[in-house]
Amino acid sequence: MDLAPTPDQRAYRDEIRALLDTDEVRAETAAIRTRPGTEGGLLDIYRKLGARGLLAPNWPPEYGGSGRGIAEKAILTEELIARGVPDIAHTLSIDIVGLALLLYGTDRQKQRLLPPIARGESVAGVLFSEPEAGSDLSALRTRAERDGDGWRLSGRKVYSAKTQLADFALCAARTTESEVRFHGITVFLVPLRTPGVSVEPMWNIGDERFNEVTLSGIRVTDEDVLGTVDDGWQIIGEVLGLERTGIEFQAKARRWLDAALERAATRGGELTPAEADRLVALDADVRAARLLAWRCVDDLHAGRSDEVRSAMAKYWAGETGREVALAASESAGLDALLAGDDEESTDHGVLEAACREAPGLTLASGTSEVMLTLIASAGLGLLA
User: pTM of the entire structure?
Assistant: First the structure.
């Protein structure tokens, strides 16, 4: 396995950096960082990338991409996060919803929904988790019942990010009762700006708002079914598995650790030997997280997917990110509590935001406990 970037990939990274380092983009990113409580959705940065076919680089040109590979998509994610550009809307729209459409969508669905996302003009969301169905999506209770040539959807979804900004979302609903728990689930493309859809905030300590979404018998047609009726579990499993590389989590850990190291260097000699040793050890952990993540990217580039490797990468990157945020905040002391709009903050609130975001890294894209279970069972055969 050779993880060294190709000359074309180096050139692509340079192209992304040149765009993100312009004064205009720097100003927009700085404004986002210094306005706590605001949330990045449809950003001008996205539109600038989209206009060049760079926002969804691994998509075909006919859908707004540039026909590059998954490695270029990972490079873009790393560079956006390194500069503090909010990435949740990008990850949801491109990496999850976009991927699902590319794999399972009809030509009409792809032509209708993908180009606006690739241009940075539209956001898509995900409606999977429910009050009683988080990590175990097979227990979901949202129902879709036949209504002529369409379906009526009723149910409640929770912890849905960016839904208040999204135009549509992937929604998992049960269409058939079955003794096999994973059978009878269908994925729908649900328009969110329609009567019968209620989006209410679920406030949390992070910068990215969660939402509770209630579907009150909204009607969708067979044109809104993604893939095959009753076979939605395959879509959910494949898309989440392919998205679970750990790239974004290790990139966040890298940014937070770099902020802590930069602060220590500029303050000079404030760290105790124990604190310095801890940050050095975490630097090795972050580097390991990046290698694990890029191994998963290499797998996808080669057309293979290893759920155990993906679980390992996601687990290590998420847990490392949490440890980095804790160590960085402890080394910074009370300064780590200064938000981005505080004129005394030396890092534009990076560490303060990290303290609030880091715990979620062990939950998003599959909890650490689920990842460990997958590794123990599928990887080590311990739970057979």
Answer: 0.89
